């Protein structure tokens, strides 16, 4: 090893890393459900969430790069128990998220065979379970996807299809075709007195999750104080533009009550391509989106397992769960999370429609992630005062006033999303005898309660360790006296 310094990331590469962490064509149908009002909520979401998360995660990543991400930041600020709660939220959120991305993959694959299958619960269940277990076993063998393949998947499965659907919608609008939504000022402004209007914010926040994942590269950026803010600005504008225009593309051609949250993207492509006599391109589009979705999924399966493995090493979980196989993979945690994802997938049979199940899981995942972000914003304020004298390669502009303003906006965004999460859109009914709020509250409680058990488990383990150390010390003292 020569200790040669690695080349720094330039502006373009940093922008691609940031946008690649967030932009996803899968999220378009969820926000398209809310028509013209989605523009207002995308702008609001950027102000009270996307921009604050970007600034805070950049400062924390550059200042405490060796502390293990969200686990290390919260641990430095509030201690071990709070850190475990944060890493649990990050892990369990992905467990709830997997069935939604897998159902999107299943619905996209259906367009290669029979589009009607996308609304068949048994088809979705079989594809979700088989795909996730296959990818789990691939990870158990220690197979790693190269960075070049991951980049290819991102371009083929996100950037190209996103640009294509926006181009088709723009051509449709310019050509004077009829639109399913109105774009006058009255329609663009939200009806704040309606609960379904506010539920749009949940969909928008879901589209903005993940900014903190790319911020870990801040130390690899040349001139971070200057380059990172510019990259953040470009990324925020790019993400907002593609998400707004992509969502409007779906809302342009699909009536509100016909937007399917699982197959909405392919429905839109099917409509556009048929109108332009390009239906032969539909299988190509479907394959491209499948490549992008699968390429992104396989990398995410191992990440949360690593997080729980760290928690097991700190005695929050039985240390046997952290045991790795010959390929260096925490195999027992991988198997456990595959079982948990399988159980979440059966939620498709607890509610009357695929749309309702998809929204419920998306809403649950977003709620859990927001709780984690709440801890992150609080930790940022605490660490600025607790470690006031350390060097910060990147610092939120405006000194303490800028810090408090940024974190206050972020906390406001998290709080609003958490409250609104208990309200379902009017067109998503739940089974008789169950209200959406009741089902949602039960889901949140069931996912958070294990934390208390794991903290109690760790306390018992620490007491046992302390008792064993004390007993060993007493025995050594007796042996010394007898000698």
Give a quick rundown of the structure:
The chain has helices spanning 11-22, 28-32, 38-63, 69-78, 80-110, 121-140, 147-174, 185-188, 195-198, 200-207, 211-214, 224-253, 264-275, 282-313, 331-345, 354-386, 399-420, 436-482. The chain is mainly α.
Can you offer a commentary on this structure?
The chain has 483 residues and is an all-alpha fold. The protein has one domain (11-301, 352-435): Amino acid/polyamine transporter I. Helix content is 71%, strand content 0%. It has 18 helices and no strands. The chain has helices at residues 11-22, 28-32, 38-63, 69-78, 80-110, 121-140, 147-174, 185-188, 195-198, 200-207, 211-214, 224-253, 264-275, 282-313, 331-345, 354-386, 399-420, 436-482. Helix 3 crosses helix 17 and helix 5 (80-110) packs across helix 15. The longest helix has 47 residues, at 436-482. The model has no long low-confidence stretch (mean pLDDT 81).
CATH architecture: Up-down Bundle
The CATH class label is Mainly Alpha
CATH H-level superfamily title: Amino acid/polyamine transporter I
Strand-residue proportion: under 5%
Task: Give the N-to-C terminal Cα separation.
Answer: 52 Å
Net shape: globular
| Residue share in helix | over 70%
Helical stretch tally: 18
Order of helices and strands: HHHHHHHHHHHHHHHHHH
The largest sheet, given as strand count, sense and whether it forms a barrel, is:
none
Rg, nearest Å:
24 Å
Helix- and strand-based class? mainly alpha
What is the multimeric organization of the chains shown?
Answer: single chain
In the predicted model, the low-confidence regions spanning at least 5 consecutive residues are: none
CATH topology: Amino acid/polyamine transporter I
* Total number of strands: 0
Q: Give the number of domains.
A: 1
Mean pLDDT: 81
């Amino acid at each position: 090893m020569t200790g040669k310094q690695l080349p720094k990331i330039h502006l373009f590469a940093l922008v691609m890393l940031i946008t690649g962490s967030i932009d996803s064509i899968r999220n378009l149908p969820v926000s398209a459900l809310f028509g013209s009002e989605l523009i207002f909520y995308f702008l609001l979401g950027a102000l009270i969430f996307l921009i604050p998360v970007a600034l805070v995660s950049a400062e924390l990543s550059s200042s405490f790069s060796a502390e293990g991400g969200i686990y290390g930041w919260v641990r430095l600020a509030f201690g071990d128990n709070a850190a475990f709660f944060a890493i649990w939220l990050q892990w369990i959120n992905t467990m709830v998220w997997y069935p939604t991305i897998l159902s999107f993959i299943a619905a996209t694959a259906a367009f290669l065979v029979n589009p009607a299958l996308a609304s068949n619960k048994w088809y979705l269940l079989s594809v979700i379970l088989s795909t996730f277990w296959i990818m789990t076993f691939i990870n158990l063998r220690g197979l790693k996807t190269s960075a070049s393949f991951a980049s290819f998947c991102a371009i083929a499965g996100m950037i190209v299809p996103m640009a294509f659907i926006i181009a088709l919608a723009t051509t449709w609008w310019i050509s004077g075709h009829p639109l399913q939504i109105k774009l006058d000022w009255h329609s663009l402004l939200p009806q704040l007195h309606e609960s379904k209007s506010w539920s749009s914010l949940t969909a928008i926040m879901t589209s903005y999750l993940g900014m903190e994942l790319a911020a870990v590269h801040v130390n690899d950026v040349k001139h971070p104080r200057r380059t990172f803010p510019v990259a953040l600005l470009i990324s925020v504008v790019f993400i907002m533009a593609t998400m707004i225009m992509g969502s409007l593309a779906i809302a342009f051609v699909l009536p509100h009550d016909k937007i399917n949250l699982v197959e909405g993207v392919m429905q839109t492509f099917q409509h556009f391509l048929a109108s332009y006599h390009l239906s032969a391109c539909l299988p190509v589009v479907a394959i491209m989106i499948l490549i992008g979705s699968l390429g992104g999924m396989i990398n995410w399966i191992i990440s949360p397992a690593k997080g729980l493995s760290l928690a097991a090493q700190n005695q929050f979980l039985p240390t046997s769960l952290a045991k790795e196989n010959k390929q260096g993979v925490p195999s027992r945690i991988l198997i456990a999370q595959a079982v948990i994802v399988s159980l979440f997938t059966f939620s498709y049979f607890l509610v009357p429609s695929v749309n309702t199940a998809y929204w419920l899981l998306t809403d649950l995942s977003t709620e859990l992630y927001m709780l984690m972000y709440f801890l992150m914003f609080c930790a940022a304020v605490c660490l600025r005062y607790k470690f006031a004298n350390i060097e910060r390669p990147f610092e939120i502009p405006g000194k303490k006033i800028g810090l408090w303003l940024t974190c206050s906006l972020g906390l406001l965004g998290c709080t609003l999303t958490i409250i609104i999460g208990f309200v379902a859109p009017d067109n998503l009914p739940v089974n008789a005898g169950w209200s959406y709020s009741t089902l949602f509250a039960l889901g949140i409680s069931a996912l958070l309660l294990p934390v208390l058990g794991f903290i109690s488990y760790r306390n018992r383990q620490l007491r046992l360790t302390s008792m064993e150390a004390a007993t060993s010390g007493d025995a050594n003292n007796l042996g010394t006296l007898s000698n």
